[in-house]
Amino acid sequence: MLTSRPALAEALPELAAHPISETWLAQRFAALAGGDPADPRVDEAALARALRLMRAETMCAVMQRDLDGRAELPEVTEAMTLLAEFSIRAGLTVIGRELQAIHGIPMTPDGHPQTLAVVGMGKLGGRELNVSSDIDLIFLFEDDGDTAPPPGAQGGGGGLRLLSNHEFFTKLGRKLIGALSELTSDGYVFRVDMRLRPNGDSGPLVCSLPMLEEYFYVQGREWERYAWIKGRVVSEISSEPARRIERQLASLVQPFVFRRYLDYGVIGAIRALHEQIRHEAERRARAKPARINDIKLGRGGIREIEFSAQVFQLIRGGQEPELRVRPTLAVLGVAARRGWLAASVAAKLSNAYLFLRRLEHRIQYLDDAQTHILPTTPEDRLAVALAMGFPDETSFMTVLDEHREFVAEQFDEIFADKAKAGGAAGQGDCECPPQLWSECLADETQAADLAAQLTRLGFTDAAGSLERLRAVWTSSRYKALNETSRSRFALLVQRAVEGASGTPEPDAILARLLDLLSAISRRSSYLALLTEYPRALDRVLHVLDGSRWAAGYLIRHPQLLDELLDDEALAAPFDWPAFKDQLRRSLNGHGAEGNVEVQMDILRRAHHAEVFRILLLDLQGALSVEAISDRLSELADAIVDVTISTVWPHVTSRHRDVPRFSVIAYGKLGGKELGYVSDLDLIFLYEDDDDRAPDAYAALARRFVTWLTTHTAAGTLFDVDLRLRPNGLSGLLVTSLESFRQYQFREGGANTAWVWEHQALTRARFCAGDPEIGAAFEDIRAQVLASEREAVPLAQEIVAMRRKVLDGHPNPTPLFDLKHDRGGMVDIEFTVQYLVLLHSGAHPALLRNAGNIALLREAARLGLINEPLAEAAAAAYRIYRKKQHKLRLDGVEAARVPAGDVAEERAAVSALWSEVFGAAEAG
After folding, report:
1. Contact between 551 and 500 (Cβ < 8 Å)
2. Residue 184, CB half-sphere, CA atoms under 13 Å: how many?
3. Among 266, 315, 468, 564, which is disulfide-ready with 536 (CB 3.0 to 4.6 Å)?
């Protein structure tokens, strides 16, 4: 290029002094064409020549900076992307102006001007354009209609040859392609590839948005979802018609590419696409052996890194807005940050990608050819090795092979056909092929054989299990499945039978698993997940075997199946600050910020995933009952805190950027004894002298409760109980800090806090929101609890309240109610509350919200109660909680057990109660 352009050779040092920028491109075009693209003096001929000269200058400047080591890969690809965008926009401006002078302005049916939107796909869309790349384009326009004379045209524009919009934009598209790709004495600008448009080469050159929408939902294929990940409008987006079509296009593309559920079905689609690409590469290599070293399409090449990154986008992008980015390295970064890909693996894939892309450029620098194949001549191979910074070809090839081997290994790990492997290993004792089970069950003889097989496998109710299986095969849900899903479903049913046979209750486990499969049958991605990853099915069986409640939770939230694959997340420590930071990023990410429905679903999915993580650890025996409650309470605190900060911007009456507002937790959350399905007992406090504050914080509280309790497509978060606020249900929804203080201390009158409210205060704590208000609440709590009280009246109040609680929870069964019956958990909790209210003034250690067991021991240490009785009651409380927890996991609503199972514990609790409250009971 420099030999044929002496002036360019002379100007190159100055051209290469700085990175290519939009400003530089605009200035060079104006100098070369005699004006900017909007200047009427710039015609198509001037456009074509200026763009080609600019391309030569840009190419040489980029090469010089790259080979000198002054430009990293992002600068190189950004420079080529900027050149492509400028060329497209300039071409549309110049050619569009000339066509409008002949044919008029394209209009929508309701009279608005239209523009041609050019969508850049592939490397252009991802701002990753290489130095000798085709540009993949799609031409779109808003709607059918016709051209019309411009407003104020002389003579009404009668001399114009009016066209349909489709005809006009087709002409514009063809001329733009020519302006970019025709080879002249000045060269070319970019080769243009239009094959990614709907229906490819057989489809129309330009496409209206209604046609594109119909195509997506009727004919759109999985590989097109992959292609559209990088799709981006590269024509101008500053005018109203351009912004309008960009908005409409985004609303069509996002649901097509990013499904609202976890889409594991895409693994097979990408695997099939890659196999086609690899087979084609191998076919070409056989025809021309030099092609064996294709660093893009060959084994371990650039395409495998792109596939390995973008599979995360297609699987998770519908639920994770953070993944809706285009550059490959950005996707790898998100996957590593979220723990979906090990950080070390992401780093090595990124390094391999940078190495291969730099190598791709050096191969293309040789002859300005769109090739990804290592040169065959020794001279060129050595030149490439030296340009990559290696002293010789051998050392260069060693590093190249290391990168390619690692990439290939990772690709195979992600895309190996685990379904086939699992299917081959899973034939077991069920001799009827999976796809023929429906026929086998319909035949009496074969059904009898299946019943015998089930009996041999340990099923005690073979007839009942067969009936459940028959119901599945004859259900409308199964009949509605396509062939692929039916095959997967059948294979999973067979594996379910075999997996359930290894559990203590195979009939019950099979019933639960069939319920789960029925629930997910219409989500092909979930069927794909369980067939692609047999390990996930093993863990499903473990969950179903471990807990009836867990089985129901998984059936209600099948998206949690994804968590069964995440060993690293399961083993990672609970980091709630990091959890909140990540959740806030998701809530404020692309497509989520300001969208209430999306944000509410993000909150729910994040909560469900963490609950399920705790549940899995629980079923593994890795957490004590106390640790489970601690984790669930910490999670609730985190969700409450993030919800406040997310809801506040939606409050139209807000008067400050950060609310002076706090949430106080009572009850189980206050005592950090939260269970899997516990309500949240909350009150709301604020400290703000602004006249607008009461209304603003009341609106915040209402919205906050709505966000927690509303049932959305992703489920619910919590039920919220607000009855413990000052004056109960008749009181204000939010209370100022000063009003709360006065309510707690005022003597007499209707607004005086009752003893039972002070009992509740023993288990209250600051949960989330403004920490200064939280600290002030803790001070008020300490003062209230430490107030001087008379022992006898206090004991009588608490004994009376205990009778009311017992009367309010009758137990008509011979079983012992672990919580409410005498000698149960409420007796222990009331005893602790009495000790705190009576003695914390003299013994501040009792003010700590440390839980009932710790406070019992502290009271014994202080000599307030008998130590052996305290230890026995504390041990009983722990046993009660374990039994209650086990019953809850088994789906039992009322935690009741045979009285004889806890006779010793009941006696210990009753003895402590008698020691503390004997006199009051007698009175």
Report:
1. no
2. 20
3. 564
Positive or negative, the CA dihedral 536, 540, 545, 546 is positive
Write down the pLDDT at residue 429. 42
Ranges of the chain whose pLDDT falls below 70 = 152-158, 260-268, 278, 280-281, 284-292, 416-440, 442, 568, 590-591, 746-753, 923
**Amino acid identity, residue 757?**
E
- Structure confidence at residue 749 (pLDDT): 39
The SS3 assignment for 239 reads coil
Rounded to a whole number of angstroms, the CA Rg of the chain reads 35
**Host domain of residue 391:** 265-416
Report how far apart, in Å, the C-alpha atoms of 61 and of each of 2, 18, 688 are. 11, 9, 60
Q: Do 87 and 169 share a domain, yes or no?
A: yes
Domain termination site, one of 416, 434, 461: 416
What per-residue confidence (pLDDT) applies to 431?
Answer: 47
Angstrom CA distances, 860 to 672, 910, 923, stand at 22, 17, 25
Of 416, 439, 466, the one marking the end of a domain is 416
By CB atoms closer than 10 A (0-12, 13-18, 19+), residue 573 is: exposed
Q: How many residues does the chain have?
A: 923
What is the secondary structure of 43-74 as a DSSP string?
-HHHHHHHHHHHHHHHHHHHHHHHHHT---HH
CB atoms within 10 A of CB 237: 16
Q: Give the residue among 69, 66, 71, 79 at the shortest CA–CA distance from 361.
A: 66
Looking at the structure, tell me whether residues 277 and 214 fall in a common domain. no
pLDDT for residue 416: 66
CA 348 to centroid of chain Cα atoms: 24
State the pLDDT at residue 129.
Answer: 94
User: Tokens 């009992």 — which residue?
Assistant: 759
> How far, in Å, are 67, 108, 823, 896 from residue 76 at the CA level?
11, 40, 76, 70
Q: Which tokens sit at 521?
A: 């049958």
Does 156 share its domain with 297?
A: no
CATH, residue 406:
1.20.120.330
Q: Is the dihedral of CA 482, 483, 489, 493 positive or negative?
A: positive
Structure tokens belonging to residue 714: 């992703």
> Quick one: which H or E segment has residue 566?
none
Grouping H, G, I as helix, E, B as strand and the rest as coil, residue 654 is: coil
Place of tokens 């309500």: 679
Q: What does the alpha-carbon distance between residue 460 and residue 466 come to, in Å, rounded to a whole number?
A: 11
Which residues share a beta bridge with 206? Answer: 139
C-alpha 140/C-alpha 746 separation (Å) is: 72
Beta bridge partners of 107: 113
Q: Is the dihedral of CA 661, 664, 665, 666 positive or negative?
A: negative
